[in-house]
Amino acid sequence: MMAVEQDRRARNVRLASGDAFSRRDPFVIGDQLSFPLDMFSVPHHYKGDVKEIMIPHGLVIDRIQKLAKDIRHDYADTTIHLLCVLKGGSAYFQDLITALRRFHDHADHSYVPFTFDFIKVKSYKGVSSTGSVQITGGDLAALEGKNVLVVEDIIDTGLTMESLLPVLEARGANSVRVTSLLEKRTELSSGFRGHYVGFSIPDKFVVGYCLDFNEFFRDMDHICVISDRGIERFTEETRG
Ligand SMILES: Nc1nc2c(ncn2[C@@H]2O[C@H](COP(=O)(O)O)[C@@H](O)[C@H]2O)c(=O)[nH]1
Ligand SMILES: [Mg+2]
């Protein structure tokens, strides 16, 4: 199925939180699109460990600036509580707050004051389809009455977010929305979609920009597809 068509179908979505809000479209990275490795600077220590560059770092940053504008528009003059999902979401979180902070300098714009916190989330698929989630870190009691915006690196099956959101809502948050830099077009998707999504990507395992494979690749700026050699090498390294 063509990537754009697949994404259009995916927009017949169940949004987080039963929120009546209708999301904007993510930028679609086509199934065949990749950027040649020899045209970009890839860290020497990962040479051969990535197959292709899916999203160069500059494009990531440009897209985040627009996501920040969308968020500012929708939350105008409302304080948001950003909840960054570690560790994968941390690079996106940093660049997003940098973009949001810039709006503070322009008196002619609406402001987006924000507070933030960090959590770690592990989701478990039990025998039932709902799954369960283990949250560590973060002050969940402080969510009461807040407009929570979860900041995630990637939505794959959607299970993690589907499990997390009811927990946040049960803590009395005023609203809960999700921004994810990436969203995978996968047949395994539960149908969950975030509100503010940077890129819809093909069903490939990506690393870089804080997305890891066995804790490696977080220090690479571009978002890349891991190679077979990379999988082999960093599986070996973690075995010790
Ligand atoms: N480094 C990568 N991590 C990935 C990728 N796809 C998913 N993930 C991790 O899983 C959760 C979300 O998964 P979900 O199935 O519950 O939606 C995400 O936060 C990542 O930590 C990937 O391609 N690369
Ligand atoms: Mg994550």
Automatic annotation (TrEMBL):
MF GO annotations: hypoxanthine phosphoribosyltransferase activity; magnesium ion binding; nucleotide binding
Catalytic activity: IMP + diphosphate = hypoxanthine + 5-phospho-alpha-D-ribose 1-diphosphate
Any single GO BP term: IMP salvage
Annotated keywords: Cytoplasm, Glycosyltransferase, Magnesium, Metal-binding, Nucleotide-binding, Purine salvage, Transferase
EC number: 2.4.2.8
Boundaries of every Phosphoribosyltransferase domain copy: 59-213
Pathway: Purine metabolism; IMP biosynthesis via salvage pathway; IMP from hypoxanthine: step 1/1
Alphabetized InterPro entries for the sequence: HGPRT (IPR050408), Hxn_phspho_trans (IPR005904), PRTase-like (IPR029057), PRTase_dom (IPR000836)
Necessary cofactors: Mg(2+)
Superkingdom, natural source: Eukaryota
Database matches in SUPFAM superfamilies: PRTase-like (SSF53271)
Main location: cytoplasm
A single cellular component GO annotation: cytosol
Locations listed in the record: Cytoplasm
Family label: Belongs to the purine/pyrimidine phosphoribosyltransferase family.
NCBIfam families assigned: HGPRTase
Protein name: Hypoxanthine phosphoribosyltransferase
